[in-house]
Amino acid sequence: MSNKAHIYTEKAPAAIGPYSQAVKVNNTIYLSGQIPLDPETMELIDGDIQQQARQVFANLDAVCKAAGSDLSGIVKLNIFLTDLSNFAAVNEVMAELYEQPYPARAAIGVKQLPKGAEIEMDGIAVI
Question: What is the CATH number of domain 4-126?
């Protein structure tokens, strides 16, 4: 039988819908999508796409840490962008935070994201 836990931390934005920040099953963490919300104000941060990406990574890191991992534990990352011309700028931020071997990843262009965000990320991490 699996060991299933719902993860919550005040260091990341609260869910804005009927979902958990993450669900941990055994040593795998399924991370819900994070947008560049400030966890204290629950408002989108001001700034360019790189600042927004850094906030999203900070939110993911907080959830990972609450589950017993951190950004380095992410093995699969999905990045959703409302403007794929921001792809290179997001890659620069990711290169600041990760070393090879990088996690598996997808970058997907979408029409719209919650709260008018320009970027959202979700993923799978392991402990």
Answer: 3.30.1330.40
